[in-house]
Amino acid sequence: MVTRVVASLVLALLAVPIGPTISVLAAGPATKSQENTILATPTLIREIQFMLLTVGIDPGPIDGNAQQRTKRAALIFQERNGLGAFVLEQQRPRDETGGDTAQRPEVPDWKETLAQYDADHDGRISLAESPMKNPTTFMEADLNHDGYLDERDWNFYRARKTSQNNVVAIRGGGHGDVTSTHVLWRYRKAVPNVPSPLLYKGVMYLMKEGGIFTSVNPKNGEIYKQARLTGALGQYWSSPVATDGKIYVASEDGKVTVISAGEEWEIIAINEFDEDIFATPAIAGESIYIRTRGTLYRFGR
Question: What residues have CB less than 8 Å from 185, skipping those under 6 apart?
């Protein structure tokens, strides 16, 4: 059994390294303090979790998710067996909807799509013929749920796929189409996919996956400062919150970064929790509540 565990983990942790990058979503050269990261599918992660459990290392729930307990358990196993320190990360589908200006995908129209993918020439696209990487994306585009994409389905998918992420400032009032008269500015680069913008003490803040944190002038959309949160790179689902001159942002891998509010913001501290964080921290009075995967924390004076 131990041999099987070693073989499985060595294969999973060493066979598909993506190199000495600071994280799956990070960019730029690595430093000596950064760890190698590998991507694994949910099926492979579930196998790793089961194998870790059989040798007495608790990986948390056997659910195929690369949560913090699983990552720590894998690192413990590697240390005990003299393996390299590779950090386990979840492989996520790349078939995303929309994107920043530089990432905006090109999707062919229906006529071009049929010519390229309609192998049986029946005037529709099946899942087997579809160029979509994620079956869930196909099912979402199949509006009448008949198992095929027709022109209406494809146009819906194309509109979503080529949509453009942007933050827009609009002056209130007006009637009818006020695009040319009331749109004050647009910002299209490094726009968050999930976290909401934060407006605090006259400055707007954006938290994008990959640890990209941006302060913006809300009057004209100009950038004050944009940089990565060194030490807290990764996926972000929760929105930033602020109180007492400080901003709090929580990453999926359980790192809560405290930032000094202001145009030229700075990192004050990074606090590591034992579990993943998806929920936005809540502030009530002089307390802040942080919800991890399995625990609710309260911090206060």
Answer: 168, 169, 220, 221
